[in-house]
Structure formats: structure tokens, C-alpha cells
Amino acid sequence: MKRLLLLLGLGLSLDAFAASMRWGEIRDGSLYLQTDRPDTVTVRWTPAWQADANEEHLYLLDGQGKLQGERVIKASETRGTQRWPLLPGAASYRLEIPGYSFRNYRVEHDDHTVALFEPAKVHFSAQTQQGDELYFKVAPGEHAVLAGKFHGGVNALQAQRVGDDQPLTLTLKPYRAYWQFDQVALPVSEREQVWRLRLQGSGKAAFWLDGTANRFAQNPQQLQPLREDAGQTRLTLHDKVLGRTPDLGIALPYVLPPSASHAALDALKPTAASYYSFVDVTAKNPHFEDAFRKVYQDRFGIRQDITLLAGSQRQADLRADVQSNNGLDAWLAATRALGGKGTHYIGFADEPNLNYSSFEQYRAIFTSMARQVRSDPANARAGVRIAMPASSRLVNGPFADNAADKRGIDWARRLLSESADQVDALAWHEWMIRDLLATRVYRDSVRRAAELVGLDAHGQPRKALLLDQTNLSSGSSLSPYDQETHYASLWWASVVINASQDGLLSMLNWFQAADEPQYPKGMIRVSGDDRFALKPVGLAQQFIAQHWLHQVLWLENDAFEVDVLAMAGDDQRGLLGVNKGTRLQRVDLSGAKCPLNNGALRYFGADNRSRDAPFACRDGRVSFDLPGETLFALSWSAS
Question: Alpha helix (H) ranges present in 233-286?
């Protein structure tokens, strides 16, 4: 019976020849593979939900963190297979299946290959069958915690300690807030403990470990230490300027910011902002927004912003009616009153591809409101520009049924073909790229957007590109492990670097500035006594802003786990980078003259502090050892 259960779902499957091991229906997680003989890892996928609207990526890294294989899965490939060879070695390969995934992945390899599965936390990581079974290990003295979340499938975790059969059950309960979950402390022992875990219920499963290695195997013998060797990162810097760096900003609240928040906002140094304008509010009170918009511009120096017209509570499905037209008129008047000191983009409706039933419905309101904006030349003189379509995601579809008909890039292409002269900028929002290794898709989306609008004689987009809202997750589908920790710092730094890499983007905004009760996804934490403090991602943004320069330089980078952006400004030069992996990376830079004039290297690590770091500069090369999960900034004078 036990062997039969192992044939199903996430549990291992020994085929008829007892030679292969299978992992089934993975949706979000890492599989570490270490082999002492040549092997092949085979990945097969089938559609889970809206697969035909979404491209996906699979990554295979070797034991030094080098990319050995990348599979780009087209939206049309709802089913498919990928095979990669595995060579013998003491260090583990890492097969990455980034979430959120719209496909079910099954992985097969030789049963002699050691395999450890690291699931996502809070977010569901697999589709399982009743009775699926795994093993995990707790080292001596560790205070380990078994945790899980109910996503409508697996409803209980049953653990049994191998050796004395001590049982433990964790019931998974539904909660109103996505970020709430259940957990139970495991016994602390002076001896190593091996536990058998059974998943009760079928469907979506979220289970993980805290206080110990978050890794699971299909039999106890596979629970071996994970080895990751140090990596090598080779960088080559060139003098060629690719373009400008984007203005980095945040989504600012629809209120006058209290004075107690000013220090935190100043620390973030935003130069761009996202706003909403609630047409039902401004139609009744045309001057409602005047005070805080002026403060954001004059006190905080915001010179580039985008406003999305909506109703109260960010009601997104705007209508071309009297209220909306009056609200737009009020916004235009308020913008003219700002004195033409900046560029003020306006988007008609929020994420129309998510919130409107058809393109035709959105086109009607866009055409009407664009005509209203263009009717008065004073609007353009005041810096008003039209952005579209402020879509939910760009290359991939929104989280909605029939998403294949609602991809942001398709709606933008149609609107440009019909009304290009009414469009000044292409705007979009990017959500649900939670995996650190998958953040390179931000570079791809910017390139795809630039290709869509076309480039001018200077290699710059003919329409401004605005990535005006982004975060790991959309709405309130948040995990405290990725919103409240250093993980968000690594993620944001990587997104900033990838999105800026080609000098094509004009604006990049984190959503949102400060935590709200239902949306604790800000850069700033707000306590009940009106105190404002930077969260880890806010402290990382402070570090980024301190080292941000105006132009992007061409930089060659052969690493996968380390992202780096080269910049220039006046007589300054600098590299901003992040080691997203846990392994040490030995960084080697050529193209910078030694010795570096006024050179300095700074690290920003999990303690949320910036510190000086040593580097060597000899024979025309700069080198330094970069710890895992660390941001860095190397700066020097060009004169």
C-alpha cells in the first residue's frame, strides 16, 4: 500500500524497472540534484490554469551557480518536455521552477541521484494527492518549526519521528488574510531527528520548515548535506553609454503625508511616483488633491509621475460618464496649477486588461478621454502626457479567465496601431515574479516594450516606457517571508538592475510607499502611534538611491546569480550589484583603470546595514569576494 501511494503526486514514483525517481506537479520551488554518475533530468509539463496566456522559464544551475540550461516556454507550449544532462560532482545542481507558475511540472531522474526539494513558503508549491509522503531532517539542538497554509487542498500535515514513531499533527485552517498560516514547534533534541511527513488532502499544498534547512526528500537516505561551491563572476566594463537610468519611485498615498513620515520618505529619495485620482472625489471637490500633489512635487522633489484615474477604493472599471469627465477636468486643472515643473502622465483606468471585459470597452474610454486631454494645449504645456494601457502585466496575461485575449502587450499593440498620435508612453504593472532567479524577465519585458514602440535614431524608445507599479505579489497575496525580510531587498535590487540594464526605461516604481492594513506591502512600516520606519526593502532602496547615477554603461556579466548595473554621472562611475545566491562569489572586473581614483566598495547585507569592504586593484583588474545574499556598490572618480 505504501509503495502504491508513492506512485502518486508529489511523492516519488519508482517505475517498473525501479530505476527512476519522479517528482510530480511542482508549481513553485527548487530541486537540488547531486549525482555520482552521469544522469539526465527530464522535466515534463501540463497546463494548470491559463497556461496559454503565459510564457514561463525553467533554469538549471551547476554546483558553482553557473547557468547550465534555460528553457523558455512559449505561451503556446502548454505541454512539453525538456531534458538536461547531469554530470557527476560533489556539488548540487539546482533546478528552478519559479512561481507563480501556470503549469504543473513533473521531474524525473535516476534513483541514485540525491534529490532535495525546497518549497516556497506560504505560497503553494505543488499539487498533491492524498497520502503523499516526504522526509525531512532536524539537526541536533535546532529549534525547528513545521508550517503550512491551507489553499483549498491539503488540510493537514502529519509528521512522525522515525525511530520512536512520535506523532505530530498540524491542521491547516482557512484564514481571511492570505499571509496567515499555521505552524507547530518540533521537539528539540541533542540527537539528529528524521521525520516522515504525510500530506492529508489533495490539491494545492503549502508546507515548509523554519529554524532548519527547508528541504525534503523522498527517502531518508537522500537527506544529505547540500554542497554549493563558491562561484566566479567576471565583469567587463565598456565606456559606451546605452541610455539613461530610470527614475526610481513609489506609489504615494492619496493624502497629505504627515510630518512624521517626511524623514522616511526623504531616506527613500524617490524621483518618481505613482498616484491614483478618484474621480468620484474630485468631481465633487475639484481641489481635493491640490495640497498633497503640491507637497509631493515641491517638498519631495517628484518631477515625473503617473496618475491612474479610478473610483474610490481604487475602483478600476472607469466609465466615460459625466462624473469621470468632471474628475479628469479637475485633475487637469490641478496639474496646470503645479506650474509645469515636471512630466505628469495620465492613465485612463487601472489595469484595463484585468478589469474590462473587452479591448473595445477600454478603447472607447481611452479615445474619449484622450480627446478631452488634447482639446486644451495648456495641458501639454503643463507637462501632461498620456500613458496607456497601465496593464496588469505586459508579456503575460492578467490573473483572469480568458487571459490569452487580455495580454497587456496585445492591447497596447492594437491601441498604438489605431491611435499612436494620442499615446506618449507605454505603462504596465508587473506582478507575481517572486523568484530571485526569475527577475531577469524584467529586462526581457522592457526590451519587448521598446520593440513594440520602436527606437529613434539615438536608440531610445519613441514612447516613454513606464513600469509604474511592481511588487513580488499582486493585491494582498503576500508572504511575510518575502515582504518583511531581506529577501525583498535582494528582489528589489535585482529588479532595479535588470529593468535598467539596457537604458530603455524611464520610470520604475515600487507599489506601495507605506503599509496599509489590507496591503502590508510598503517600503515603510507604520505603527499605531504614528511612527514611520523603513522596512528592509526601504533600507535597500536607501542604499540604491545613495549610489544611483544618471547613465547606463555597457557591462558584460557572465554570472547568473549576480546581477550588476554599470552607471556614469558627471565625473563619477559606479557598479550596483546584488548576489542573490547563498554562495560566495569571487568577482573580477576588467575595463576600470587601476588604481581606482577615490575608489570605495560598500556592502549591504541581511543586517540591513551598509559597511565598507576590501577590494584589490592590480594589473588592470578589480577583484573582491562578495558574500551571499548581499548588495554591493563599487564607486570611483573618472577624472
Answer: 262-268, 279-284
Q: Does one domain contain both 385 and 459?
A: yes
Residues 179 and 307 in one domain: no
User: Model confidence over 114-155: pLDDT tens digits?
Assistant: 999 999 999 999 999 887 899 999 999 999 999 999 999 999
| Domain enclosing residue 259, as ranges | 246-548
Same domain, 497 and 395: yes
The verdict on 509 and 626 lying in the same domain is: no
Closest CA to 79 of 41, 126, 42, 47: 47
State whether the Cα torsion 489-494-500-501 is positive or negative.
positive
Q: Are 45 and 27 in contact (CB under 8 A)?
A: no
Q: Please list the residues that pair with 631 across neighbouring strands.
A: 578, 604
Rounded distance, CA 82 to CA 74, Å? 13
Element (H, E) at 496: helix 486-500
Same domain, 495 and 596: no
Whether residue 235 is contained in a domain is answered as: no
Do 329 and 402 lie in a common domain?
A: yes
The CA distance from 408 to 615, in Å, is 44
**Mean predicted confidence (pLDDT) in 204-227:** 96
Task: Round to whole Å and give the CA distance between 348 and 493.
Answer: 30
Beta strands in 7-87 (DSSP E): 20-26, 29-34, 39-47, 56-61, 67-73, 80-86
Same domain, 218 and 256: no
pLDDT the model gives residue 576: 98
120 phi and psi, to 5 degrees? -70, 160
Do 550 and 291 touch, CB atoms closer than 8 A? no
User: Do residues 122 and 193 share a domain?
Assistant: yes
Cell numbers 485552517 correspond to what residue?
Answer: 173
CA distance 598 to 261: 35
Average pLDDT over residues 292-312: 94
